[in-house]
Structure formats: structure tokens, C-alpha cells
């Protein structure tokens, strides 16, 4: 049945309606105040009556006659006594008022003894930081009282502070990161370790708000994310940090559905942070982040992977549709990165020509190309030892000019190898991620700003912080995207990753062998593996070079070629000089 619309006066929230609603509410409140004694007496009479009924029911039948006789005698005496009925009514009303009073215990006004003790000890701990000898009316003083300084507080079920608003004197140097860090460290320690705290400094009001953060969910597995082209989900964060949520499945078998706030990184022509740098301690989950990005990138673009770690963690991507190459050796990496630099230039030239002619950019310049590099610093050392070119030097063009050419660079490396990263990498990767344990200085150095939360003692893999350009620092949990070929991977997670992999376009026997964990020596990267691939001669790496590399390292070099789809003319260096003038113009234009 069709629902009848409400009368207009009820359905729209006009001002007169709001006023009348307010009037009605005030009238109801006043009536409740006036009628309160009557309500109390009525409630008391009801309680007295039910008490009398209960008494009657509880009295054994043989005694009921005597009880009735006694009540009747009392009634008779009262009726005959002077002012008896009047006194009886007054007594009954008084008894009813007493019985009908509101007996719900009122909520305690302040904290209980142990909570007050906690607040007092916090106050005492803050005294040296928030007071000076010259202050004639100190807000914080030894032996002082916390009630003037903590305007709001909440405790959790275990009696620990969950929320606190702290007033501090205006002369406290709240603009200085060191001063803030001292207070944050102290509050974190005094309020209970093992939890994460968020600190919001209101410099205008001289007020600090401390909030305990719930742990980020660690049970979100790789899955198709509902995002627009050009958007990549780096991971998940707090609801207060971002406006948007993504519908996701949780749990070991994806049994639960929930909306979770993501950290979304936008790439492409209009991106202000077109390239990303992710760093972390070994085992913190940077390779997992790269795998997660690769799986998302493959929806709309092509991917090149350069794996300096050489643990074979990207083998599942080899030969898949859209994966142009998965390189683990120095020669192959140099070759594919050289091609990528030339491809960036080709795209710029083509787009520039189209602009000149007033045409839209050609189709083949618009498909996103992703260069994902895991531990390129390992190749830097190898190249220096072998007197070869550093693959990072080939990233200059994609990093500087990748944005208009739809080329995105993602570099993952270890925190202690930051110095080995080239200047272009550090300068052009404005999206930053730090995973795993890191000191406040390391976080500030990589992210460009300290996070507003305290670090946790136990950091799960994939946990860290992300900052896009000059935006806020977000807590981050990367979705679990493990290597499906790793024996330690759970079946559910393995299946989730396998489901996201595009179909293979290269025959399986073209794939590199899987590395046996026991056979890999950390320093030797994966150079132990037999040379089984043809290095693309056109891309500048000759057979002779490959042989020289093998001879120098005493080991084989594994490389894989870019997929057949890589246009030959884009790989050949000879095609570039003819257009050099156009390249320079396009490059100059894009950099301006
Ligand atoms: N987001 C995540 N959720 C669950 N587990 C994760 C996550 N990220 C990483 N892991 C697990 O942590 C371990 C290390 O991850 P990963 O190889 O990605 O780290 P890494 O930083 O690349 O370390 P390394 O450089 O030593 O390879 C793996 O077992 C992986 O499955």
C-alpha cells in the first residue's frame, strides 16, 4: 500500500514547527515539575497497595479472619477518634510519598577513589613540564589539585584512562615538537603502555586532548576494492582520519562485512603525489605492500617489477596479463628500467605532438605503467662492486616526468638503506609509507612530520604510517597480501591472492623457477640461479655484458624479458635521437 505523505507542516522542518516543538517540550517539562509530588504519591499508593495484597496472599487462610478483624478495629478507632480520618489521610499520604520516592541510585558525580588517584598521579607527573618558578598563579603546582586542569576524562572497563582533556599554561612551548614529544611520551607511559594514544593539541585554547585508539584490524585480506581508476588503496586507518569508507570482508574466511576507512593514494596526470616510497625494517611488510599495489594496478595498467631482494616474492606475478617483467638480476633490471625511461620519453613525445595538433593524447600513452622496485639499494651496491650503472639512475626520467606520461614509480626499501637511495627517488616520491617499528626521528625523517600517535610495542606486520604529500600522517594497516607460493601462507589468504591474479599470457615454462628458501644466500641476492633468459639486446644490455656479469659474480643471472607486448620501437635507443629535439621540448614543458 502506498504510504501517504505527511502533512507539509510535519514533513518539513520549518522554523515555526521547530518553535512549537520546543514550546511543547518546555510545557511538558513544566507539567512534570508541577505534577511531580502527585506522581510520587500515586506511585507510593500503588506500591503500598501491592505490599498489602502481598501480605494478604502470604497470610495463611486460618489467620486471615484475625487479620481482617484487626484492620476493621483500627479503621473503627480512627473513624471515631477526633480528627482521626484527617490524620489517617495525612499519614497515608506521607507513607505513600516515602514509598514512591525515586530509588534509582544516582550516577556518581566524579571518579571513584582509584580513578582519582590515577588522575592525581598524572597531574603530579605533569607539574615539572607545565610550571615555572616565575608563575604567580601556577595551574600546575606540587601538592595541587587535578580538578582545575583535567576538564574531561573517561575510563575504560579496566580502569585505565580512555579519554582526557588537559588544560596547560599558555607559556608552554606547544609549537615545538620536542616539547610535545616529551608530554606525549609521559602521558603514554603513565596512562598505560601497550595501547596507542592520539594527541590533539589545541594551541589556541591551550588544551591537549588524549584519546586511546582502537587497534587497526589485521584480518583484512587482499580483495577487490571499490575504487575509481587511478586510486590505489594503501591500507586502512582510523575513521577520524578520512571521510570515506570501503565495504570489505573480514575474518579468516571473509565471513564478516564491514565498512572500513581506507588510505587511498591517487596517481596519474592530476596527482600531486605521483610516486611512492615505502620503507621499513626487514620483515615489516613492504614487499606485501608492493604486491598489494601490483594487484590493484593490474586492473587498469601494466606493471614492471624489479626485485632487488631476490627472494622470489613476486614469482606469482610472472607471465600474468599486464605484467611486463619481473626482474631479479642486475642486467635485466638495467634493461627494463632503460626501456621504462625511453617509454616515458616516447609517451611524452606522443602526448606533446597530440597537444600541438589539438588532439586528445593517444591511447597508448594513457594506459598506466607502474614501475615497482623492491630494495633497489641492493642493486646499487652490486652495480658499484661490478662497475656497472646503478639502476636507480635510470629512474630519473620516470620520476621527473612520469606523471604526465602516466608512469608511476613505487620504491620499497629498508630503513637502514635510506642513504643508498638516490636523490631523484627521495625528491620525487611525495607519497610516503613507513612500516614496522621505527623511531620518532626515523618517522619524521621519512614522512616529513611526526605522527600524532604513540608507537606500539608490538607492531604487527603491515602496520605503520602513511602520508600523502603534505597531508596528515595516517596510521596504516596494509591488507594481508602474502606470497601465495610461500608455504607459511594460510589457504584463505593464498586463495584471496590467487583470485586477484590476472590470467597468464606467457606459457608456464617461461616462468622462472621458484626459489628454495634454503638455497638463497642473503648477500648473493638470487644470482645463484641459472641464467635462463634472453636479455633484450635492444634495450642496451648485450649478451657480452650479461656474460661479464656472470663471470664477475661467479653466478648465473636470472632475467626475464618484457612481455611480447612491449613495442619494439620504444625499446630501441636508435629511435630516440631522431626525436631528441621533441623530447627535450616535451620534457622541458612537463617539468615546467
Ligand atoms: N599486511 C600484512 N598482513 C599480514 N601479514 C603480513 C602483512 N605484511 C607482511 N606480512 C607478513 O610478514 C612477513 C614479512 O612480510 P614481507 O616479506 O612483505 O616483509 P618485507 O618488509 O618485504 O621483508 P623482507 O624485506 O625481509 O622481505 C610475511 O610472512 C608476510 O606474510
Automatic annotation (TrEMBL):
Residues 537-564, 577-592 have a biased composition (Low complexity). PROSITE patterns: FTSK. It comes from the Bacteria. Residues 502-592 are annotated as: Disordered. The keyword ATP-binding applies. The chain crosses the membrane at residues 65-98. Keywords: ATP-binding, Membrane, Nucleotide-binding, Transmembrane, Transmembrane helix. The keyword Protein transport does not apply. Residues 260-444 form the FtsK domain. One of its GO terms (molecular function) is DNA binding. Residues 565-576 have a biased composition (Basic and acidic residues). ATP binds at residues 280-287. This is FtsK domain-containing protein. It comes from Streptomyces griseoloalbus.
